[in-house]
Amino acid sequence: MRLQFQSSAKLFVLFWFIWWQFVESQVSNPLPKPARALDATLQDYAYRAFVNPRTGIPFDGIVPPYLTGIEISAMRLRSGSLYRRGVQTFKEFMIPVGLREQPYVERLVLVYQNLGNWSTTYYSLPGYNYVAPILGLLAYNGSDLSASNLPELDLWASEEPITIKFGRISPVPVGAVAKCAWFDLHGQVNLTNLLAGNVCLTTEQGHFSIVVKSAVPRVPAPPAAPESEPPKHAPSSRKNEERIWGIVGSATGGTALLVLLALLILWAWRYKKRKRMRELERAADAGEALRMTRIGGMRAPFALSTRTMPNFESDFGL
Ligand SMILES: *[C@@H]1O[C@H](CO)[C@@H](O)[C@H](O)[C@H]1NC(C)=O
Ligand SMILES: *[C@@H]1O[C@H](CO)[C@@H](O)[C@H](O)[C@H]1NC(C)=O
Ligand SMILES: *[C@@H]1O[C@H](CO)[C@@H](O)[C@H](O)[C@H]1NC(C)=O
């Protein structure tokens, strides 16, 4: 009997663990994994552009055919000269003096990305429309130009911010306010004010674009690039559905487990009581003195000198 109770308890813990894991996985998955995988692919292809690498010159790379529409470029720099001189222009980016990286490397490579018509595929921002493509600027160790799967260095502007001057942007609907959107490498997005119609500032690396809030009554906004419409709404409604099913699923699982837990406690309690009664009967048979006492608000016979007095609370381990 005792063994059975212990294994039930173990089973319960197992159930609880599985349920908890399930609920955990429902909560959120903040890492944009496809976007990070894309960064790794683009780093690899950008490095291949360095056929005859010269410092401080941008080299445009060629993306694999399945990513047609994305532009990449790479620039190799000595980190000392990057810090002292900055980079006048690297595509849409203007990099001031004072750029620092962590961990320190002697040479680094800045990889530029323009996701073009792939922007909304990799960086969906529900409730907003893009009026410019996603641009990326990421820093890597530049010592080994045949390396792939490199981690990004930490890069930040310690004096003035980096300026991003977007070229031609789609017209902003009348009455809407355009904002700069910055995605950091963990998928966190931060909206800041747009300057001079198409300029954003940043002190860190990441992915950048210009967004406007989508109109509340969902009319197909004519200025928004047509390719940005279909991939935006389809996944978000699917995501909503998934979320609802997740909530229903965890609520059902939770209720079932509560019932299971209640039954388990009830069963254990009755088992304990029966066992004690049996012990008391045995004690009575042996001629030991009995007296009535209160146990948990219930009158029950109580043996004064039962040697193995079971401890009601601590035996459950709950
Ligand atoms: C982007 O455009 C290219 C052609 O320029 C096309 O091959 C590719 O499939 C498009 N990507 C998306 C996500 O629509
Ligand atoms: C950069 O790459 C070189 C060559 O692979 C390596 O020796 C060095 O340790 C790397 N530096 C950092 C900070 O990872
Ligand atoms: C977002 O930007 C604002 C303004 O620059 C800043 O105060 C805030 O800390 C930023 N939030 C994150 C999460 O970076």
Automatic annotation (TrEMBL):
<feature type="signal peptide">
    <location>
        <begin position="1"/>
        <end position="25"/>
    </location>
</feature>
<keyword id="KW-1133">Transmembrane helix</keyword>
<keyword id="KW-0732">Signal</keyword>
<dbReference type="Pfam" id="PF06697">
    <property type="entry name" value="DUF1191"/>
</dbReference>
<keyword id="KW-0812">Transmembrane</keyword>
<feature type="region of interest" description="Disordered">
    <location>
        <begin position="220"/>
        <end position="239"/>
    </location>
</feature>
<protein>
    <recommendedName>
        <fullName>Malectin-like domain-containing protein</fullName>
    </recommendedName>
</protein>
<dbReference type="GO" id="GO:0016020">
    <property type="term" value="C:membrane"/>
</dbReference>
<dbReference type="InterPro" id="IPR010605">
    <property type="entry name" value="DUF1191"/>
</dbReference>
<keyword id="KW-0472">Membrane</keyword>
<feature type="transmembrane region" description="Helical">
    <location>
        <begin position="244"/>
        <end position="269"/>
    </location>
</feature>
